[in-house]
Amino acid sequence: MCRLYDLVELLENNAECVVLKVKDNSRMQLICLGCFDGNETMFRLTKGSNHTCTVFHTNGHTCSWEWGISGYTLVSDSLKKCGIMIEQCITNDFGICIEKR
Fold first, then answer.
1. Which residues touch 78 (CB under 8 Å, ≥6 apart)?
2. Between 20 and 30 A from 73 (CA), which of 32, 44, 66, 83?
3. pLDDT tens, per residue, the chain with 101 residues
4. Is 3 within 8 Å of 93 (Cβ atoms)?
5. Distance CA 69, CA 41 (A)
6. How far apart are CA 72 and CA 20, in angstroms?
């Protein structure tokens, strides 16, 4: 089974956020991860003590939610799992610190 890290490439890592681009032909593998729709094109996670996660879809729609010291956006378990996978991919697999120093 593949992981999110296998399905994305690092597009941007700056002082404000990290952007991951979904690789072409990854639709079925995203679906098999259990919480993605398969029509995602990019993921963005902001850095700092609060994190906003944004998912970009092929139809132009986006979905954003946040968590951190200021509180949490109420989201479904599936969307929460997406955020955890995205955060772990960025921090564990790409080795990027998302806390501002």
1. 34, 35
2. 32
3. 799 999 999 999 999 999 999 999 999 999 999 999 999 999 999 999 999 999 999 999 999 999 988 887 888 899 999 999 999 999 999 999 999 76
4. yes
5. 28
6. 22
End-to-end CA distance of the chain: 35
In the block, tokens 């970009």 appear at 56
Longest dimension (CA), the chain: 38
Phi and psi based region of residue 48 (left: phi greater than 0; alpha: psi -120 to 50; beta: remaining): left
Check: CB of residue 37 under 8 Å from CB of residue 78.
no
Identify the pLDDT of residue 73: 81
Q: Residue 81, SS3?
A: helix
Cβ-contact 51, 45 below 8 angstroms: yes
